[in-house]
């Protein structure tokens, strides 16, 4: 009986993990125009320093495709077309996204979808130490609305897939229960 149960659990676990296929993605970007055209086509632009970079594994539901998303925590000095707080977490594509460096300053064109601020791999990202060129073209822009600290939101982002560990923990607990029950029956009988 025990061997059948373990075999069934093993088969279902194996089928579950190996049945998830991966979707292929291709990147197709339109030709970039001027910075003003880029600003007009986005939610806004932000300039500031990258404070933290983390990669998180995202998955829709239990069986959904797993996708790595790079998140950057940015200390915003100025923004154009939209007012933002002093810190923003911006999602970027892990595979195609710009290779940010902590401590450097960038001009990033952002979009907002489903409450998440993101930077498309097709949008311009410019590393610069001084926003004078941008302020000459776009104007002074906005200073941050309010001072916030979002560093704590980066703590629970994990690049590793913990689904396998959860399943193994459940199997270990179930196995332990069966073993303890079997020992109790032997002691009684």
Give the helix/strand layout:
Layout: H1 2-18, H2 35-40, E1 44-59, E2 66-80, E3 87-93, E4 105-113, E5 116-119, E6 125-127, H3 132-138, H4 163-188
Parallel strand pairs: 3-5
Antiparallel strand pairs: 1-2, 1-4, 2-3, 4-5, 4-6
Structure description:
This protein has four helices and six strands. It is α+β, with helices and mostly antiparallel strands and 189 residues long. The chain is elongated, with a radius of gyration of 24 Å.
List key phrases describing it.
4 helices, 29% strand, alpha+beta, elongated
Give the overall shape, derived from the CA principal axes. elongated
- Number of DSSP strand runs: 6
Number of helices: 4
Based on CA atoms alone, the radius of gyration comes out at: 24 Å
Main pleated-sheet profile? 5 strands, mixed, barrel
Which stretches are low in confidence, meaning pLDDT under 50 for 5 or more residues running?
A: none
Strand content: 25-35%
